[in-house]
Design a protein that fits this description.
The protein has a 5-stranded mixed sheet with strand order 3-2-1-4-5, with helices on one face. Residues 4-9 have low confidence and may be disordered. It has 2 domains: 13-146, Nonspecific Lipid-transfer Protein, Chain A (2-Layer Sandwich); 148-194. The protein is of the alpha+beta class. Helix 6 crosses helix 7. The protein has helices spanning 13-24, 29-47, 51-58, 111-119, 132-144, 149-157, 159-183, 187-193, and strands spanning 64-69, 72-78, 84-85, 102-106, 126-130.
């Protein structure tokens, strides 16, 4: 199934520069490892606030999903507690790497296209291969589990400050969506460029 949009946004110079920078910079393995560990901690923090999500992950315990975007990959395994963990990398000597039961690849590798898709409120195009049941659970999680950032911020900043900050971020998000909607090329201009 082709899920690519029928048009593309004009190149945004700042994002293209960022894309080139991301593609050219080789981060040390320890930076990638620590960043992925922090992502897992955040995901588990969000999951611990959603008992139904944890129950769904418990049913998938031991299964692994690999998320791929260009040359970036993150493999996560469901634990018996209904949380996520990263398999050891590199694997202990003599053991093969963890084989992913599900591979979800973002097919939009260009950062400007990906940002435009997300800013419009659309889901990025993905390629899914592997375990159908695990894919269904991952889809349910992405559709139904949300980070209540205001609740977490209120613990640090207080209720009023957290509410104000989240409201300001929401307004900024709406402004970004509005901007992306305005720079969207007309169908006639898009047809003329092909």
């Amino acid at each position: 199934m082709n899920t690519t949009p029928p048009f593309s946004f004009p190149p945004l110079p700042g994002l293209s520069l960022l894309q080139n920078l991301v593609e050219s910079v080789q981060l040390p393995p320890w930076v990638i490892d620590e960043t992925q560990n922090r992502v897992v901690l955040l995901l588990n923090h969000v999951l611990m606030q959603e008992p139904q999500a944890q129950e769904r992950l418990r049913r998938q315990r031991g299964k692994s999903a690999r998320m791929v975007w260009g040359r970036f990959e993150l493999t996560l395994t469901a634990t018996p507690a209904g949380l996520l963990e990263r398999p050891p990398f590199p694997p202990p000597s003599g053991q093969p790497p963890v084989r992913a039961d599900l591979v979800v690849s973002l097919t939009q590798t260009a950062l400007p296209d990906l940002v435009g898709t997300v800013a419009r409120g659309d889901k990025p195009a993905v390629s899914i291969e592997g375990d159908v049941q695990l894919a269904a659970e991952v889809a349910w999680l992405t559709d139904n589990v949300r980070w209540d950032i205001e609740e977490d911020l209120s613990r640090v900043l207080g209720d009023a400050a957290a509410h104000t900050l989240v409201k300001a971020l929401g307004v900024a998000g709406l402004a970004l969506r509005s901007f992306v909607g305005r720079v969207k090329p007309s169908p006639a201009a898009d047809a003329a460029s092909s």
